[in-house]
Design goal:
200 residues, mainly alpha
């Protein structure tokens, strides 16, 4: 069965295009907001000097805690569609738990780093003054063009690994237990609320 019919490789276990895309939309909405909260937690660690880095106290991160950071929603969808199947393939190839987990972490870290670099090169171009407008890792250890750095690569890799090994399987199992009608209502309400959160 093709990807539109949810072949099972993504772990959602649903049949039919509507249920498949509806569940992905739920993931996108939930993790767009949850990703914002993750940013808050990470910047709080920086604020108190527990991890290296800089943070902007005037950033939108702090002003509206419910504002969706859509990049994390897309990241969650990528975990379901790409990184979770990669994790399953690694488990079949290596067997056991430790080797596939380490290989999955390495693959996830590389994927997240390439995504952040691509986004940076498109959206985070330096202005006329040479300043990167959205983020700048130039002072961070092992950075590339100020767009990516080792610390954040490892952090994103850890988050993606947690998503593919723990969060997605448990959330997919939970969604399978919810009646279709209830999920349809929840997704409709969530979609409407999500659009309202994006309004200025």
């Amino acid at each position: 069965m093709g990807i539109l019919g949810c072949p099972g490789r993504c772990g959602c276990g649903r049949r039919g295009p509507w249920a498949f895309w509806r569940d992905l939309a739920i993931y996108f909405c939930v993790f767009s907001v949850a990703g914002h909260w993750m940013e808050i937690g990470y910047c709080t660690l920086i604020r108190f000097g527990l991890v290296p880095g800089t943070y902007d106290p005037g950033s939108q991160i702090w002003s509206d805690w419910l504002y969706p950071f859509c990049v994390y929603g897309f990241g969650a969808v990528a975990c379901v569609l790409v990184l979770f199947p990669v994790k399953n393939r690694l488990e079949r190839h290596f067997g056991g738990r430790v080797a596939p987990l380490l290989a999955s972490f390495a693959a996830n870290t590389l994927a997240c780093t390439l995504i952040e670099l691509a986004m940076g090169l498109v959206l985070n171009r330096p202005g006329p003054d040479g300043v990167l407008p959205l983020w700048d890792y130039s002072d961070m250890f092992c950075n590339f063009m100020g767009q990516v750095c080792l610390q954040n690569a490892l952090a994103f890799g850890a988050a993606a690994t947690l998503m593919t090994w723990v969060v997605h399987p448990k959330l997919a199992a939970f969604l399978r237990q919810v009646p279709e009608g209830a999920l349809n209502l929840v997704s409709a309400g969530m979609g409407a609320g999500f659009c309202l959160l994006l309004l200025p």
